Amino acid sequence: MPENSTAHRIVIVGGGAGGIELATRLGNKLGKKKKAEIMLIDATLTHIWKPLLHEIAAGTLDSHADDLEYLAQANWHNFSFRLGRMDGLDRENQEVRLAPTVDEEGMEFIPRRSFKYDTLIIAVGSTTNDFGIKGIAEHCFSLDTREQAEKFHSLLLKKCYSAQTTQQPLREGQLHVAIAGAGATGVELSAELHESTRELVAFGLTNIDPDRDLKISLIEAADKVLPALPERLSQATVDALHKINVDVRTNERITEATADGFLTEAGQFIPSEIKVWAAGIKAPDFLKKIEGLETNRINQLVVKSTLQTTNDENIFAFGDCAQCPTERGSETMVPPRAQSAHQQASMLVKTMQNRLIDEVLPEYKYVDYGSLVNMSSYTTVGNLMGNLLGKWSGALMLEGLMARLIYKSLYKMHLVALHGYSGTLLHAVANRLTRKPRRRLKFH
């Protein structure tokens, strides 16, 4: 930003689904007309829709096929991008502090910096919460970033190639994947892994018996999988998982992870040399130490229904990193879902417009449009709430093809928010015309 600029400075920290959508729309509405200067800060150079990470982990999606370069998006949509990781805040001088940026060898290539703001919007998302359980951090993968998903896929391939060439009997758990947490991520990953590992074997790993050697366990502390969905859909999911021989264990609380597997509260040992922890989230740890702002027990910034933080009206937060009531005065908090961040980003566009002309700020009210869970090519289940269906007040249970089509449309809606309808259509047509025949599975 030019030092002599007098335009209102809006700094958005975090380029996840909500952050990049907000920066794009504010750039189009305010940046283009020079009504405000919009800056997006993120610790990575590219954006990828987080619900795709389980496909990257399974190897069924090229990790760079659907990413978006922040610098290019900024150039196209009238905002600026800065690479860096927020680690502090100077509220008195209204400055965001960024940690030094280092390369893979640990060499610093961008020094510590700070950027001034008039309005700060924090959208740094969430990370895996291991609840302090012994061994989780050391022995389990999480799927918060593309890098983590890629590392998981790399280990999976190494394990399979090693099993193909070994002259010894396979160790118990050598090719077993244990996933802790049967929410959407755990369920989708288990189904995607079942398909991708069978396809990998079919391409020539003839020494591996997929039914005997490859095993997937899904472990949940609650009494059912997909706890947020109705019982019928939860049971339909379990039935689908059983058909592909996924070992589903509910009411099973993990107390420790080792290199060889999980230990449970009931005294069970689940052998697995490949483990994923998807059993809880928290906001990034640096938020609990941020200057003078109120946070909860999982580091989320506490915000009002305007999405302003409780102790500073110039700082907003939304998405997974914010504890927000579903509506003013409610004791129920907004769930950490992509649809929540999308709704809040949409409201914040109007909020920033009102803020520039000193009008009353809108208040957020959560609208639940339901949930959909995609189980690779096997099936899709979910429910659409009455809010999406007009006057009908019930919830429509969906399974199979219709659910799958709606699930795929959710990603298209995200692309529309970033590129517009015409841009998304042209992108889809170009991909179709230039697409070369290729295998679905990634082997490296």
Give a verbal description of the structure.
The protein is α/β, with parallel strands linked by helices. It folds into 3 domains: 8-126 and 283-356, FAD/NAD(P)-binding domain; 136-279, FAD/NAD(P)-binding domain (3-Layer(bba) Sandwich); 371-432, no CATH class. 31% of the residues lie in helices and 24% in strands. It has a 6-stranded mixed beta sheet with strand order 5-2-1-11-23-22. It has a 4-stranded parallel beta sheet with strand order 15-14-13-19. A 3-stranded antiparallel beta sheet has the order 6-7-10, with no helix packed on it. It is globular and about 70 Å long. The two termini are 41 Å apart. Residues 386-394 have low confidence and may be disordered.
